[in-house]
Amino acid sequence: MNGFASDLTHATYESPDIVALYARPDGLQKPEETLLSWLRPSLGSMDMLDIGVGGGRTTRHFAPLVRSYLGVDYSSAMIARCHEEFPAFRFAVADARRLEPVLDESCDLVLFSYNGIDHLDVHERGMALGEMRRVLRPGGLMVYSSHNANYLPAIIERFRFRIHSNLRETLRSLKWSSVFWAKNGLLQYRMPLAAGRVHDGTHSFRSSALYYIRPDLGVAELRRLGMVDISCAGNESRDFVPGDDPGLAHDPNPWIYYVSRKPERT
């Protein structure tokens, strides 16, 4: 991408219908509930950066509890909605690849929820992870979720052409199966896919492809970044497991939450 203003996904997130969709009140996902429970005793002394804040789903749960809160999104329409909905808290338009409004080592908690990082390609993903680490204080927590490559067979099955008793449903199946394979023509030859971008139908294919990664490789990504105390949870689980759990390589959940810590200074 040559700047987010021309990005297909950026245009989608600026559209009124998508802003309205993400502005609907919604609860935390199960791993986020666990995180909130873990951190609740110390949130009052933490400075939080909430990346890809969208319509403020996580704002309503975390912002009132932390010492300071900044929500950022690369969609100006999303940020305008957050200003309107949560006037007491700070928001800014910012690109996760270049978190220019945020100073080095100024945050205790960085959250990038709802798989927002997956809109980036592998190089840009590295940029975003590096930026998240940069703004963390030593000992600070990095939390994000990412699509799980182990779930891709279920995505492929979802778009398999089916003949229905109803002609309209048969034509609908043909339409979306055709679109899926037009967007992912070589996917069947890349399976099983350990990591890579896939057009999975998000926003009815109005967004660019999303990055899927096997959980053990996601953990390795964090280790290369120098993060420690890594743990993971499937999006339907409240229980985190250590990053070296051998079962992670085969975890079938649609997406995975990653929690890691920036090392303390020695």
From TrEMBL:
Domain (Methyltransferase): residue spans on this chain: 49-140
BP term (GO), one: methylation
Pfam families reported for this sequence: Methyltransf_25
Molecular functions (GO terms): methyltransferase activity
Family annotation (InterPro entries): Methyltransf_25, Methyltransf_Superfamily, SAM-dependent_MTases_sf
Keywords, ordered alphabetically: Methyltransferase, Transferase
Name assigned to this protein: Class I SAM-dependent methyltransferase
Lineage: Bacteria, Pseudomonadati, Pseudomonadota, Alphaproteobacteria, Hyphomicrobiales
